[in-house]
Amino acid sequence: MRKVSIIGVGQTRYGNLKNETLRDLIAEAGCKAIKEANIKRKEIQAFYLGNYDAVSFIKQNHLAPYGAGAIGLKDIPCIHVEGACSSGALAIREGIIAIGAGLYDIVLVVGAEKMNSLSTEDVTEILAQAGDYETELLAGATFPSIFGMIARRHMYQYGTKREHLAAVAVKNHSNGAKNPDAHIQKKVTFETVMECDRMVADPLTVYDCSLISDGASAVVLCATELVSNFCKKTIEILSIGQASDSFSMHLKDDITTFDATVKAANQAYKIAGLKPSDIDVAEVHDCFTIAEIIAIEDLGFVKKGEGGESSFSGLTSLTGEIPVNPSGGLKSKGHPVGATGVGQIVEIVRQLRDEAGLRQIKGAEIGLAHNFGGSGATAIVTILRRAN
Amino acid sequence: MRKVSIIGVGQTRYGNLKNETLRDLIAEAGCKAIKEANIKRKEIQAFYLGNYDAVSFIKQNHLAPYGAGAIGLKDIPCIHVEGACSSGALAIREGIIAIGAGLYDIVLVVGAEKMNSLSTEDVTEILAQAGDYETELLAGATFPSIFGMIARRHMYQYGTKREHLAAVAVKNHSNGAKNPDAHIQKKVTFETVMECDRMVADPLTVYDCSLISDGASAVVLCATELVSNFCKKTIEILSIGQASDSFSMHLKDDITTFDATVKAANQAYKIAGLKPSDIDVAEVHDCFTIAEIIAIEDLGFVKKGEGGESSFSGLTSLTGEIPVNPSGGLKSKGHPVGATGVGQIVEIVRQLRDEAGLRQIKGAEIGLAHNFGGSGATAIVTILRRAN
After folding, report:
1. Most exposed: B52, B264, B280, B319, by fewest CB within 10 Å?
2. How far apart are CA A242 and CA A268, in angstroms?
3. In chain A, what residues touch B132 (CB-CB under 8 Å)?
4. How many CB atoms lie within 10 A of CB A138?
5. How far is A123 from chain B (nearest CA, A)?
6. Alpha carbon of B138 to those of A275, B132, B134, B354: distances in Å?
7. Which residues of chain A neighbour B146 with C-beta distances below 8 Å?
């Protein structure tokens, strides 16, 4: 496959955006990315859209030409991909493959979701449809309850503590407070998190759960051999791994690890010729605090079972050995489902370009993004490098 | 891009399949295709699923790993693509691109939809969400009414008559009567169609509308350079074109032609080095009878405006100059939305292999499939050839 780079990124603010429609969000992110890439609309040869469930949220389907129209793109192939919470990274991966095949030189990818049109109860049910409806949702198992079970098991098996979960929330809120695109730009103290009695699914309180956000993120992909025509600050995509795991929780051997993450990461490291210790900055899928703890284990940043203690010790802070979720993550930046995987790449691109402001990781040259869907049935791991 | 061929196909019967879940349908079609290709599950390196809206029909999302699990596929990348009624062809196209890129050698593509879980009114609304919710559905414009307007305009502009529409229905029911997989395997007479007073949206009666079907279709794609390892009766994919048109009806210059079809067809003909008269058999997207008439014009089989008369004259019958919809089409074979584009390819493969039984087009060597979404915002045209 031909090598692929990123020549422009764009993003809306994430949040409860009452005044913007899904069209508005897609248009804003897409147009910002096009402008940053300094290309004309007619130079874009295909459009990939990551969206989880606009049907349920706003009664709109056939989403790729809908989104393309909002951006002012005409005639070109438009493809909507869905992979639950990993819809965004999935769209990027399909775009990379199409350029890799030599079919296109320049592709626009947008991830977007408009979620705040409905109540929290309805959103929770819609999200639960990314799990197994027949064996899970019908029995009342939504994602907070599933990740509550996962957290309990991780505690039982590895001695992970409530304090470890809290440390993830505190760090991500601290990072989000430095991100002007974040849904909640507010620090929280360790004591506030520990004392919180708004239980969602034991042991997870509201501070352990990601946000229900509206938002869109976009990247312009370009064949690496052509980037010099467009942009000086390009970011190379070294690899993008994807794997799957059992769709249903009851079929998994071990719920304290996500097989798909491990396999996708191994693919990505192998293709890039890198190891976990080579990564300078990572955005990982912290749909719940326990998910970040497991992710840093599954990605090989720490040993299995040591994710809780490592998060607590500051290893993953902005100045730690492996900074994780400098954007604030799904916990604080927000989680507009279809946008999330693209937004992670936007953050890594900004970090590798030294454009991340107060949350900049000094000297970051290699970054990793980890996006997963449902209770881990889909996982995608991308490794990017600053082109010098 | 590397060349891609089809080494196996599989299909459920289409119909009102009360006893089968979506899982069952995907499993049946997928397993049949795997068996026909004579490969092992572990040889499949990626899984693409075309589905329009299982969320609304059966409350299930995150559909690619859901479907893969039903087939017994593990670990591999699973990708769900949605493109309204062209979701199936879109999934095939993404699979072709991934093999073309050299990323995989063997890919399974399944298209599936379970629609009969809901009432006709609900299904009509769900389908209408493939059009523009804000400017069309909110104003009451569902697809029957949109295609009713299109038919009226075609009649006004080109003198197309009610008899011409009826001839399409009669032909497709006659073909479907010869297809053991078809939803309705029953001939209808010209008089019955002409005398029908069950108006859906003037001038379209129930005989002008495609069916609400459950079903799944599957193809196994393989890099052409490797097909000799697997199968003797391979079908080459010569080209697959895709284009888009304005998402909203009010933005189209002319509603009697579908720009995306014309552009996708031109791409496909150009890449294949063929012209319309080289096609021996075609499956086209007859969601309504008028859509088939416009399709044969847009695909270049007849001159613009002559689609009605040509259909009436027998040009598109099984023994005509360009046989169209030998399977029975969406009208008689049925239209399980996400399956349709894959099912068209299954029919063309069977025709090119001389395995189409009573509806076989003698000596067919080159076939074309035309799948489109919504009111034409997405169109995909595929050209296939018998490998000798």
Report:
1. B319
2. 8
3. 66
4. 11
5. 13
6. 53, 9, 6, 47
7. none
Phi, psi torsion values for B202, nearest 5 degrees: -45, 125
Q: Which of B93, B243, B251 sits opposite A75 (nearest CB)?
A: B243
Place of tokens 């992979």: A83
- Determine phi and psi for B221, rounding to 5 degrees: -95, 145
Look at residue A231 and tell me whether its pLDDT is greater than 80: no
Partner-chain contact B61 A130, CB within 8 Å: yes
User: Is A374 in contact with B56 (Cβ distance < 8 A)?
Assistant: no
pLDDT one digit per residue (tens) for chain B, 388 residues: 999 999 999 999 999 999 999 999 999 999 999 999 999 999 999 999 999 999 999 999 999 999 999 999 999 999 999 999 999 999 999 999 999 999 999 999 999 999 998 999 999 999 999 999 989 999 999 999 999 999 999 999 999 999 999 999 999 999 999 999 999 999 999 999 999 999 999 999 999 999 999 999 999 999 999 998 887 789 999 999 999 999 999 999 999 999 999 999 999 999 999 999 999 999 999 999 999 999 999 999 999 999 999 989 999 999 999 999 999 999 999 999 999 999 999 999 999 999 999 999 999 999 999 999 999 999 999 999 998 6
End-to-end CA, chain A: 22
pLDDT of residue B264: 98
Q: Is B107 helix (H, G, I), strand (E, B) or coil?
A: strand
Question: What gap in Å lies between CA B8 and CA B32, rounded to an integer?
Answer: 8
User: CA-CA distance, B108 to A241, in Å (whole number)?
Assistant: 19
CA distance A96 to B165: 44
- Phi, psi (rounded to 5 degrees) for A118: -125, 170
Q: Which of B60, B62, B90, B380 should be substituted to probe chain A, the one whose Cβ sees the most A Cβ atoms within 10 Å?
A: B62
φ, ψ for residue A322 (rounded to 5)? -135, 90
DSSP-derived secondary structure for B24-92: HHHHHHHHHHHHHHT--GGG--EEEEE-S-HHHHHS---HHHHHHHHHT--SS-EEEEEBTBTHHHHHH
- Give the whole-angstrom CA distance, residue B53 versus residue A92: 22
Query: Which of B62, B83, B101 minimises the CB distance to A101?
Result: B101
Contacts of B244 in chain A (CB under 8 A): 64-65, 68, 73-78
Minimal Cα distance from B134: which residue of A?
A60
Catalytic residues of A, by residue number, are 85, 335
Contact between chains at B68 and A137 (C-beta distance less than 8 A): no
DSSP letters, A193-259, are HHH---EEETTEEGGGB----BEEEEEEEEEGGGGGGT-SS-EEEEEEEEEE--SSGGG-S-TTS-H
- How close, in Å, is residue A273 to chain B by CA atoms? 17
The rounded distance, in Å, linking the Cα atoms of A8 and A39 is: 9
CA distance, residue B93 to nearest chain A CA (Å): 10
Burial class (CB in 10 A: 0-12, 13-18, 19+), A311: buried
